[in-house]
Amino acid sequence: MTTVETESSREKLLVGITPEMRMDLRIRAAELGLNVQDAATHALALWYETPVTEGVAVKGAKSWGVFLPKGGPTRFDEECQRRNLAKVQGMAQAVTNWLAKHPSPTQRLLSQPVKRILVALQKGGVGKSFLAAGLAQAFAEAGLRVLLIDYDPQGHMTRRLGYQTLSSKNDNSLLQHMLGQARKHIKRILINVEGKRFGNRLHLLPACTDAFLFDAVMSSVRHGREETLARALEPIEAEYDVIVIDGPPSLGLSMDIAMHYVHRREGELAERSGIVMPVWADTPSFEAYDLFDGQRKDLMKGTRVQIDELGFVINHYDSRRGASPQAKKAEWEERGAPGVLAVFSDLKEQREATDDHIPLFEYAPNCELTDGLRNLAKELAA
Ligand SMILES: Nc1ncnc2c1ncn2[C@@H]1O[C@H](COP(=O)(O)OP(=O)(O)OP(=O)(O)O)[C@@H](O)[C@H]1O
Ligand SMILES: [Mg+2]
C-alpha cells in the first residue's frame, strides 16, 4: 500500500522493505556519503532505466517511509503498475540493483587491481625507507595483505627490519626476475616479516646488491623496459591488496621503471595507485621535487600512461627551528594538488627502532609516528 504525503518539496513514499535491505541501504549510503533519501532516489532512477530485473525475496518486509523528490511516489506507483509488480517487489529490485552497482569502498578495494604505491624522491635521507616500511606495517596491521619491496640497492630498509640483503651471487633477485633470467619462482625470495600485529600478511622482497648495476644492465634492454617490474611481479600480484615500493635514491632508469609500475591501470580509480613523496620543509626539497616531477611528466609523455601523485609527506619537521621550516611547510601546503598528506616530526622511536633493527610497529606500537602512519594508511587505503 502506497500513500502520498507532502513535506516541503519532497513527498513521502510508504512501501514495504525487509529490515535487512533497509539496513544495507542505510550503511551503504553512509559509506558513500549520501543520506538514505538520496540513495533511494538514485536507486529508483537506476531501476527505471533497467529493463528487466530478477525477482528478489521480500519475505518479512515491513512498512517503510522515505521522502522522494516531488512526483517521485506517483512515478514509482505508475512504474510498478506498468511492470505488473507489487510495490514491495519494485523497491526490493531497485535497492538490490543499486547496492550491486555501488559496492562498499572495502568491496571496491577488492574488486580493483592491487593498489601500487611508490614512496620516492631522489633526495637522500628524506625518509623514503621510514615511510615505505611504516605504511606497509600500518596496512598489514589493518588487515591488508602487503608486499613491501626494497628497490634500493643500499638495502637499508631490509636490514632495518631485521633481515639480510641478498648477495649478488643470488640468481633469484628482483633484477634477475625483471630481466627474465631467474630460475626459481619469485615467491622463494619473499620474507614473512615477523610481528604479532602483521598476522603473516606483511611480506618483504629484500634488496639485492646486484641492484647497484641496475641502470647499466637495464640500459641494454631495448624493448619493454618500462614493463619489466610489472612482468617480474605479475606471478604474485594477485596475492596482495597493496604493494609498497621503497624507491631508489636517484633519478635513473630504475626510477623510470618504478614510476611506470604504479601508473593508473585501465578501469582503476584515479589516485588509487601512485607516488607518495617524502620531503623536508627546506629549499633543497623543493628543488629535488621539481626535478622529480619533470621526470614523471616526461615519462608520462613518452609512454602515454597516467602516473598519479598521491601527495607529499613532510618528514623530520621541527617547528622549533624558527621561522624558516614553518614558512616552508606552509609553502608545501599552499601548493594545493597533490597536497600534504601528513607531517612527521623527528622522533626518537624511529631512530631507536632503526638502530635495533626492529619494525617500528613492533618496537613502539603506540607512539606519535605509528598513530600518524595509521591515519595515513587509512586515507590511502580508501
Ligand atoms: N620521522 C622520523 N623520526 C626519526 N627518525 C627518522 C624519521 N624519518 C626517518 N628517520 C631516520 O632518518 C634516517 C634517514 O631516513 P630514511 O632512511 O628513511 O631516508 P631515505 O630517504 O630512505 O634515505 P636514502 O636516500 O638513504 O634511502 C634513518 O635513520 C631513519 O630511521
Ligand atoms: Mg632509503
Q: What's the quick description here?
A:
The chain has helices at 19-31, 36-48, 72-82, 87-101, 105-111, 128-141, 156-160, 174-178, 214-218, 228-237, 253-261, 283-303, 323-334, 348-356, 360-363, 368-381; strands spanning 4-7, 10-17, 62-69, 115-119, 146-150, 191-192, 202-205, 242-246, 274-279, 309-317, 340-345.
Structural commentary:
- The chain has 382 residues and is an alpha/beta fold.
- The chain folds into 2 domains: 4-102, Arc Repressor Mutant; 106-381, Rossmann fold (3-Layer(aba) Sandwich), CATH 3.40.50.
- It has 16 helices and 11 strands.
- Strands 6-7-5-8-4-9-10-11 form an 8-stranded mixed β-sheet, with helices on both faces. A 3-stranded antiparallel β-sheet has the order 1-2-3.
- Helix 1 crosses helix 2, helix 1 (19-31) packs parallel to helix 4 and helix 2 crosses helix 4 (87-101).
- The radius of gyration is 26 Å and the shape is elongated.
- The relative contact order is 0.12.
- The model is unreliable at 1-7 (pLDDT under 50).
- Bound molecules: adenosine-5'-triphosphate (ATP) and magnesium ion (MG).
- Adenosine-5'-triphosphate binds at residues 124-130, 152, 156, 249, 315-316, 344, 346-347, 350-351, 354.
